[in-house]
Amino acid sequence: MNLRFSLLCSLILLLCTCGLAQGEIRWTINMNTDQILQTDKRVFNSLEKDLVTFLNNQVWTEDQFEPEERIEATLFFTISEQTETSAKGDGAQVAIPNAFKATVAIQSLRPVYGTGEKTPVLNTLDKQVEFTYRQGEGVQYSEQSYISDLGSVFAFYSYIILGLDYDTFSPLGGEPLFQKAQELYNRLPTNITNDVNNGWSSNGKQRNRYFLMENITSPRMLPLRRAYYAYHRTGLDLMHQDQVAGRNNITLAVEDAQKANQAYPQSVYAQAFVDAKRDEIIEIYKGATGAEQNSVIQSMSRLDPSKSSAYRKIRMRSAPSRSASRAPVGQNRSIGRKQ
What we know:
- The protein has helices at 2-19, 42-57, 149-169, 175-187, 190-193, 209-217, 222-232, 243-263, 268-284, 290-303, 308-312; strands spanning 25-32, 71-86, 93-111, 118-132.
- By secondary structure, the chain is of the alpha+beta class.
- A four-stranded mixed beta sheet has the order 1-2-3-4.
- Helix 3 (149-169) packs antiparallel against helix 4 (175-187).
């Protein structure tokens, strides 16, 4: 009897533990369906719940993340239209059941060591998300085979978020995660990778998921991969002790990012970097020396030419406040796991 009771308790404990499993990323999801007028909106309420369940409970690595270590990510998911097709060649458009197009904006955050502040690591916009969803079916994904478009899209971005985060804690530390993203792509059916409109095609727009993955894994972009570590670990994380040394390392990281962009012009990876860091860099260099300002203005204007006027205004800014050199305030988390 005691043995049976012990086994029963162990089983209950195991089930409870599995039920409480949480992924490495803590997602905040904002869904907008205002552009969809005719579809029953209850399907989108179901979709939002399924996304929350999938994204916040899926485990992507074998590493153990404490609750306070989970990466913070925000998803803005705007369903723009229901997919349509021509009906019998007469030119009329007919909605395809359960098929939609969406725009996805994603931002991930990383804590700044020794402070209560956080810095954006990824800030990207994806306008080519096409998916099918039936109410109650959940969001499905498998590491062995392709199951669904929606599951593949968010698994891909989860690997990218994790890979970039790991790169900030150790040089090229995100390599296994980026390889996972590559393996995910390799499992996609050819009819999907050949479709120039769904964000997976090498023949499509350069600001898509394929090119983000290709850029990150390209040898030409290794200086930018290394810059993520220098910028965060030897730059931002040092500034609570020595702002001058930390800022100097950030300057070197920005220069390396510019060199990578020079080797691979118009890279979506470099664009994701400047979209995440633009405002932060401007704040950091408010009180820098003239030489540092000139260096970063030159590098960032080449990296982000459409915003060059914003960088030139750094020279006209006053000295920074105590917290001006860092990111928006938030709670800190331990970083010992990834050092």
